[in-house]
Amino acid sequence: MGKWIVCAAWPYVNAVPHLGTLIGSVLSADVYARYLRLKGEDVIFVSGSDEHGTPIEVEARKRGLEPKKLTDEVHEYVKELFKKFGISFSNYTRTETQTHIEFVREFLMKMYENGYIFTQDIEMPYCPKDQIYLPDRFIVGECPYCKYPHARGDQCENCGKLLEPTQLVNPRCVFCNSKPEIRKTKHWYFNLPKLAETLKKFIEEHPHFPDNVKAFCLNWLKEGLKPRAVTRDNKWGIPAPFPGAENKTVYVWFDALLGYISATKEYSEKIGKPNLWREYWLDKNTKTIYFIGKDNIPFHAIIFPAMLIASGEGYTLPWQIAATEYLTFEGEKFSKSRGIGVWIDEALELMDADYWRFTLIYMRPEVRDSNFTWKEFYRIVNSELNDAIGNFIHRVLSFIYKNYNGVVPKPGELDRVDLEYKDKIVKAKDKVAKLMDNNRLKLALNEVVNIAREGNAYLNTKAPWDKIKSKPEDAATTMWVGVNSIKSLAILLEPFIPFSAEKIWNLLNLPGSVHEQKWDSIGVFDIKPGHKINKPKPLFRKLPPDFLKRVNEILVKIRLNIKRPSVLE
RNA sequence: AGCGGGGUAGGGCAGCCAGGUAGCCCGCGGGGCUCAUAACCCCGAGGUCGGUGGUUCAAAUCCACCCCCCGCUACCA
Predict the structure, then answer these.
(1) Alpha helices, DSSP H only, in A389-512?
(2) Any strand B atom closer than 7 Å to A352 CB
(3) Which of A106, A141, A149, A370 is a Cys-bridge partner for A168, taking CB atoms 3.0 to 4.6 Å apart?
(4) Which nucleotide has the shortest C1'-to-CA distance from A376?
(5) What's the CA–C1' distance between A428 and B65, in Å?
């Protein structure tokens, strides 16, 4: 048994997360954390709301609110949604907690004391009307190359050229359209180049990072690391701890990444063992795994390890980075402003959590972007979840219920077909585990569905509905194998669809909870003859044939009626 | 533009790192079954594996170039 910290990227709470955010970080991490627990590992699973930074400050200002008021409400709302999705966090917190703020300030001071922080004056565009310094992309103007009038300060979306804000013709503040002026300001920088060699070694010699993460990072390193500003002139954020930096705040990335540690610390405090977090984070044998989207790789594979090293405290460095590609929605990018996509609160109004968990993992963008379509959603719910899994379970349980009064019959000797099916389940235990270990959650789930498919084929081959008349002992054997395989199936399904797995456990009338079972008990057929099961009822319902025609209309209604925090209206 | 990843039957995906007559699910055509939620099972049709060239006895797999999609390019997070 080993110590694990499972980390899910912190959702930025300027809005309700959409399905892509869910599958990329929080949901994938939950599946993995649940799997580890079944394996008997010692797991702390953390995440939280990332609530600082310019976009939130601006979003709040637009609504005439204090940023804290905005994030207070959105945080509570999102936290509750994740609970409904069955995300089994040890601690889901936020970056505005006292624990986090103090931790970040102390941590950055250690980096400072160790000589990794220096200051530099730079010139930044400043909006005199809004009284904020403007990041490049918050300045718009005409592209000097293609004359596109809405080019951003970092890049023209029309011609794709990379730009400097000073190149824009007629530059304007994206919020109020005033002309930005250039002001000089002092900032505190993290001396990344100082760690270039150490980081190169860390990544090159890393035994677990996937090839794409390695290649990406080594390329970054090859081009040379640049110092990175740790401070911002924003009002909203954690006050920078450095001497002379009293009016600055901490750049949101240096704050959010440390949340993984501070959330563990807070968890320790909550359970009354305030020093427990050290036993995890300061132990080199603790495995930390980060579930993130592909855009986040450099922050987790380079900047975060660099910070951990610079602190000099001996924190355990990332053990694995499980980066997903992107989920698109009906062929387009999710877009809040254009209303493209489904947001996780709306999703729950439409279907229960397990339907989403199942379909999203089934579509998980593991090696390339994948596309969410309602057609595919409909197909996966109806043919995979319902027909393959739900129906297999229901056929076995209702057969036992009707023919044996719900009592598991006494099996005869297992024949070749019985043994072959049992063997498939035993093999699936290792097959699924191996895929999970390699972060191929989608393929792992597919293997689990295969067990149900094989189960259906097994039933057809054995035809207990005939045998119960001609050779009752054989029908009894089939049902004993069937009910035991369903027990294994429940455990295999637990990481993916925990609510339904628990329902199966209850239908089987087994003691305790499926969540507390052991992975190694998969393939162990220990339900004894004479065991009484509960009255079966179908686990899932199918989407109606007109679903695809009606889904947009349904969604419109959901959007009209949904109760979001007032700050988001 | 540079760097990274991807392009495999109508749809969704695996195989590629360790080359050996292309595999899974859905859909489609045919058959079977009737325990089960019109569910289940079996058989079949359907692909010159983005393009071109190369290495090799043999290339989806290795190499080169090209086309298309996605991401990153350090002050969005």
Answers:
(1) 391-403, 416-437, 441-462, 464-470, 472-493, 498-507
(2) no
(3) A141
(4) B12
(5) 44
